[in-house]
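Self-study notes.
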Amino acid sequence: MATMALVACSPSPPVDGVSSASSPPPADLATFYTQVLTWSPCEDAECATLSVPVDYARPEDGSIDLAVVRRPAAGAAQGTLVVNPGGPGASGTAYARAADRVLGMPVVNAFDVVGFDPRGVGGSAPVRCASPGDLDELIDADATPDTPDEIDEIRRVSALIDCVAPVEGLLDNLSTADSARDLDVLRAALGQSRLDYLGVSYGTHLGATYAALFPDRVGHFVLDGPLPSGLDAEQVTLGQALGFENSLRRFLEDCRRVGDCPLGDDADTSVGLDRLRELLEALDARPAPTADPDRPLTEGAATYAILLSLYRVSDRPLLRDALASLVAGDGTPLQRLLDERIGRGPDGVYRDNAMDAFYAITCSDRAVATDVPAQVERLASAAPILGEYLGWGNLPCEAAGIVAARTTPPPAGASGPAPPMLVIATTHDPATPYTWVETFLAEIGSGVLLVRDGDGHTGYREGSDCIDEAVDAFLLDGVLPAPGTTCV
């Protein structure tokens, strides 16, 4: 079945016990705000740990250490840039280590690049929500239940998500607002009066939350692939279902142009979509054999693999070949494609806790759906290809019983306006669809929009020199593109 919407969040109840953004930190947080990071060599970078309170409303109750990585500037450093790759659940330390690939060389030359694993992620008090076997079972489960017994089975599998944390109280303090407060402690520990930041996908939500909480500490902010905080769970799921369906159609158009497409070369993409639906329905009835006889390819796993292959245009040839093999009766390539994208090794072990953290943080950030089957019915009507699949993916939050966080940032401008932030939106982005950009801009109140007219998730370092040059110019010199700028 689906592993929930691939990025998701919604507002939480009002904040309590936290000072306003523009005031100095409370005295009981002084220990955290005055710490100095101790850097030590680690592989090709420098590593440190940052101490933050488990609960900002009760900092005396305990702390956790967050893993931090710094890639020193390749040239003369002019500042520090903090980066976040999204998820939620993706490792910021791994992202900083990949600075040469994810950032332009002018930025790598001029900035110390810093990434941190958010609380609950990677090296920062990692949470666990399921065993590797349980995650496999969740991914493989029937994505489109047709009977009451099959719905009962989805509920059983969803209930395998049962999160635990290594530190008492952490599960109650895993919201994006908590991580944004961690980000401000990191800013202070780095000796920066203002934070320069690049966040992609869910990282835009983290950055926007920081800007709402600490507008007077915002430096050069680049938010790529905007995810609004004000959408409820059903709105997020619907937006993504429509976004991925659009990307599927565009994949089929490209597949037809290349020729000999495994789903047919008909100019009407609805024909290819019908063939794909038939292929998936066949897997529902009988999973396809793979190189591992104990792990055939199910409808749920195949659908998830297809979705993840739509994030990058560069994955289209791989998806095309994998679908050709599936049409021929072999599910191995699509299964391997899925495993590579979710970090599952041949031994069945996942390389990190990204999927666990995704559930824990997402469920903390939003209210639990009260009637998932009714929501699924509405989603299936609006998005007939993927609405049902993604809708059932919201069920684990209901099963996990994680209480939505009690903390949320104030509205944009509540503590004063933040400086202009550069927002990048891609017209055919499946995961953070372009239809969300107006909502996001209204939420942050001070965004300058840069549009990438193209396919795939996010815009920076995705093949557009126009986008890359604009981002580099803003980070290096604070020069924003003209309003209404569109790049290809």
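Second protein, same conventions, sequence then structure:
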Amino acid sequence: MQTEIKQKPRYAIVAAVQLPSVTDLEFEASLTELRELAKTLGYQVVKTFVQKRTGFDMRAYLGEGKRQEVSNYVKTEFEADAADGEMIEALLVDHEISPSQARNLELEVGCEVMDRTMVILEIFHRNARSRAARAQVEIARLGYMAPRLREAAKLAGSQGRQRSGEGGRGAGESQTELDRRKIRDRIAELQLEIVAMDAERKTQRARRQERKGLAAVALVGYTNAGKSTLMRALTGSEVLVANKLFATLDTTVRALYPESIPRVLVSDTVGFIKNLPHGLVASFKSTLDEALDASLLLHVVDASDPGFERQLEVTDEVLKEINADIIPRILVFNKIDHVGDMTAQAECEAALTLKYPDCIVMSARRADEVAKLHQKIVEFFQQDLMETEIFLPWTAQQLRGEIYAKCQVLNERSNDEGTFLMVRTEPEVVNSILTQLGVPSGLDDD
């Protein structure tokens, strides 16, 4: 019997500067999100350092006194209470900082420094699965690394300019310049791959849109709003549900369960996040392509998040940018069970429904509330269905299975010649069945 090896904990600290334009609520929300991002990377955050300033220190982000405080903690205070071999591995900064700021801060505090952009890039890099997502993430990482090569060379004690002109390197070209040229070439190569993949995706989307009877709903919204939990509740599938930001980047598609007429496919898209690095915007939007194929969007919002209104605005902006704002949408306030006791939940629900009259307030962990959302989704896709009666002679009973599979049978009666079935379904399904029966449909198939 093998003994499970316990993974050694990785410790990190977080630091942030609060500018005058940032409210305490916004500041704390961003810090909480960074700590969650750290957890996704496998770090255990043991301390948070904050500082109020009118601007970032141009040399090393944090002010001199705060840098000394962080350094003392990393080099003295933490080690005094830590077990043998335990140490602070990283300082996570809640802003994007310049290469020189990161280098100077790293030299002073005595551990690796990762800014918010680097943290998110690393998570995207680890979790991207599809070809398109991997290519977009690699471009973003390379773009982030390029201006930091010189500082990395300084930190490593680079010898500066090389004299060799061999191997395609011009005379006097430094290693840093060579590396930057390699990065530019690789980015150009990846961009060509993405153009080809975009064309392929457009062709696939056109084919999907040509297929009739495909009902699709996509879940969109901020990461950790409970989308994956809601996805599992709506489809009865074992999709990944982890209390981590960006637990998955690639779209998951499952059928709505219990299945309905028409059959509805549900997709869970990548979650939004505050202050998404500019270099990752293209990568992020490419993962939302599934939303463009949907006939209905479920915009999932964490009802317990005090900053949900700003999240609503950002989601609306991005959906507009990818031309998904014209798709019908249901606003779903999830996690109402996280608000407080039953009285607090009732008050919150009343306030939300007053401000957003057509919204649904629910918990994905309550079966009765999931059932109501399920019914609303089915009703949306059934609004264009037709009701008609189909006569099925006794000599054509082999079509009964197809009728029950593709139609909602409202009632059934029989006589000596066959069965009369009152059904609700799509016009093209009725046309197909009547054609097999040799009966002119008289229905417009357009």
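Instructor comment on the second fold: The domain at 10-123 is CATH 3.40.50.11060 (Rossmann fold).
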